[in-house]
Structure formats: C-alpha cells, structure tokens
C-alpha cells in the first residue's frame, strides 16, 4: 500500500508533499510528488504529517493500569490489553514499560520484589502473543534493594529486560532533594498520615545501598548482554562521573541544569519527561524541560507518567520553540531508538525499516490530532474527528 499526499518527516528533512510505499512490514519507497497509480487500499493523507511511530523509553503507565487506586488491583492480562489500546491511540508504537524494583515490603506492593518478578515474566509472555504495539521492559532498579541483585543479574542473562536504570530515591538527594515534595507525595497521593510519611522518610534514609563494586559488575553484565544502562535523577557532577564509569550512557531526568550540561560533556544522552515540557515545569520542582531545551541539552523525551504527553511535546518543540520538525520528532523517535539499540529496525522513515507510521493532522491551535497508526505496516488504529454541525433552525421560529 501507499500513503500519499503526505508531509513526510525524515531524520534530516521534510518532504512537503510525497508518498511512502509499504511492502509487507517494511518501508519500500519514499518519494516526493504524486504516485503514478493509486489503488483502493492506498491512503490519501490529505497533506497531514507522516511521522515515525513514537518510541517511549520510560513509562510508568502499566503500574497505574494495574493499580489505579491503592486498594484496586487488576490482572496483568486485562491491564496489558487495555493499556496498549490507549498507547496505540496516543501514537506510541514501541513502549518500554518502566517497572520499579524498589525493595521488599515497600510502601507500594506493586514494587515489591516478587510482584515485580512476576510482572516482568508476564510482560515478556504477553508481548509474544497477540498485540497492537511493541512491548519492551525497562527495569528501574533501586540500589538500596540489595536482596534483588542476584535476581536482576539473572533477568539480564535470561533476556527478560531491555533497559536497566539505576535509581536512588534516598530522601534529601536526587528527585527528593526537596523533602517537602516527598512528604506531599506520601500524604496526598499515597494517603499516609503526616506521622507515617515522616517515619517512611526516616527509615528510607537509613537503608544500606549496593556497594560500587557490585553495581559496576552488574552494569558490565548488562553491557555484555546488550542492555542499555541509564542513570536516574542525576544531581551532581560527582554522581555523573561515577555512573559514567559504570557504563551508563543515558541520564534520565537530570535534576539541575549543571547536571544536564555535565552529562552532555560526558557523552551521555539526556532524557527529560514530556509532561515537564507540556506543563512548563517539573512536578518535583526540579529542572524545567523548557530551560534544558533552550540550552539544547535534551536528546530524548519520554512520557514518564502521562503517555499522551509524548506526541504533544514533539509538536510543542516545533511550533512553540521553533525547532525543526526533524529535530523535534527525532527526540521521540530516532534518538530513543539509537539510545536503545533499535535504530537499525525502527525510529525513522527510511528504506528497509519497519513501517511504524503515524498520520497526524494539526488543529488551528497547533494541537496534534492523530488519525492513523501503523505498526509493521498494518493499521492498528484509526480515528475520525467529528466536527460541530450548524444548528438547524425550525421554520417559523
């Protein structure tokens, strides 16, 4: 099939009016102008954007889908099936489910060791069955979870995870360097009392952490098995130098502009949250994505906790920040594909790559309106936007 009359976004340029031919699951032709022939199965894009499917390198959405309320927990089968329908409708064609391995008896049962091991097994099993989009597993390993080290090593060796990030949520540094932010989270969102929240913070401060030698051995193992390693919530130059020595090539959510600058100097790719860009601020009162973008320090945007933000962030970069369409869309397509070693297969509209494609219209206010989603050359989602009709008047009134 062909998608024609399209504004095609390539890695380094935009074809203002062209067409893409798909053969089986691959992109077979990319040309400017009109196709010689049009078949019934072909799609007239009507001048809309044609962009690569979005690659979300870090999304907590599966945890929320399973446990939308502290006392409500749905099965992984139901959650997986329902979540991927939402993700497809948001233009995400490859998702890295960020599952958090915090510690045994953590404040969130869904992040306890045995629960997470079961979840990872289920994600791998379900990804191999009927599905709409590609599913990958991103393990967020809390370095205070010493008991899980052997299990994490086994997950890497058995090919169960596709990205490893090292997290440290010790109060007073990283994401929670502002303790009031953590207290508010525990009280307002986790429904703990003020006293319980204070107790949790105090106990978390005292937890022992993995020693540097053990972490280095783990990251070397990940590198040997081709699993990309990320560092999470980098806040100091000293921490960045350490995590870089651990072969971390990705800096997720740097806390300060100085950390983002230094990560770039070290050759690390910087990931920021798309909600941060869309909202104009960090929900944890940390580095604003606006500031980082203005300094050219953001390589990748991920959806973090709000999948719908990813497509909106890319269009915001283009229309509000004046960044070229190719550069803007690369932050949610080609750049994450490169960071996660997937770029030979997906992440851009190029000959021979998988036909993961989105057709996107734009409203009068520059808001993206997704109309068609293709994965492996097959249409998995189509949306038709209804427009208000003029009110009919009754004769004589």
From TrEMBL:
Record InterPro entries: Amidohydro-rel (IPR006680), Metal-dep_hydrolase_composite (IPR011059), Metal_Hydrolase (IPR032466), Metallo-dep_Hydrolase (IPR051781), PhnM (IPR012696)
GO biological process terms, semicolon-separated: organic phosphonate catabolic process
An example molecular function term from Gene Ontology annotations: hydrolase activity, acting on carbon-nitrogen (but not peptide) bonds
Stretches assigned to the Amidohydrolase-related domain: 115-378
Domain of life per record: Bacteria
Pfam families: Amidohydro_1 (PF01979)
Protein name (record): Alpha-D-ribose 1-methylphosphonate 5-triphosphate diphosphatase
Organism: Sporolactobacillus nakayamae
């Amino acid at each position: 099939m062909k998608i024609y009359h399209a504004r095609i976004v390539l890695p380094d340029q935009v074809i203002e009016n062209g067409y893409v031919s798909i053969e089986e699951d691959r992109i077979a032709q990319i040309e400017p102008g009109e196709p010689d022939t049009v078949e019934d199965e072909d799609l007239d894009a009507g001048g809309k954007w044609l962009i690569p499917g979005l690659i979300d390198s870090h999304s907590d959405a599966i945890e929320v889908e399973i446990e939308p309320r502290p006392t409500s927990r749905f099965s992984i089968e139901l959650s997986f099936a329902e979540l991927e329908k939402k993700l497809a409708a948001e233009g995400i064609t490859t998702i890295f489910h960020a599952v958090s391995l915090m510690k045994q008896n953590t404040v969130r049962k869904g992040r306890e060791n045995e629960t997470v091991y079961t979840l990872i097994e289920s994600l791998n099993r379900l990804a191999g069955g009927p599905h709409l989009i590609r599913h990958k597993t991103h393990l967020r390993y809390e370095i205070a979870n010493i008991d899980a080290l052997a299990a994490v090593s086994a997950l890497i060796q058995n090919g169960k995870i596709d990205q490893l990030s090292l997290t440290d949520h010790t109060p007073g540094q990283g994401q929670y360097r502002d303790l009031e932010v953590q207290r508010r989270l525990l009280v307002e969102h986790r429904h703990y009392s003020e006293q319980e929240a204070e107790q949790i913070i105090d106990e978390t401060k005292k937890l022992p952490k993995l020693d540097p030698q053990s972490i280095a051995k783990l990251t070397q193992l990940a590198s040997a098995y081709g699993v990309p390693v990320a560092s999470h919530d980098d806040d100091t130059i000293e921490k960045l130098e350490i995590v870089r020595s651990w072969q971390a090539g990705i800096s997720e959510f740097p806390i300060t502009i100085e950390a983002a600058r230094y990560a770039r100097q070290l050759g690390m790719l910087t990931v920021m949250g798309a909600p941060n860009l869309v909202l104009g601020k960090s929900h944890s009162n940390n580095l604003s994505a606006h500031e980082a973008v203005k300094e050219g320090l953001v390589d990748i945007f991920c959806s973090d906790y709000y999948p719908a933000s990813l497509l909106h962030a890319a269009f915001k970069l283009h229309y509000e920040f004046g960044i070229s369409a190719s550069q803007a869309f690369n932050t949610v397509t080609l750049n994450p594909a490169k960071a996660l070693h997937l770029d030979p297969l997906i992440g851009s509209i190029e000959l021979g790559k998988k036909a993961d494609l989105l057709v996107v219209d734009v409203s009068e206010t520059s808001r993206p309106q997704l109309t068609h989603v293709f994965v492996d050359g097959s249409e998995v989602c189509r949306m038709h936007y209804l427009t208000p009709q003029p009110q009919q008047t009754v004769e004589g009134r």
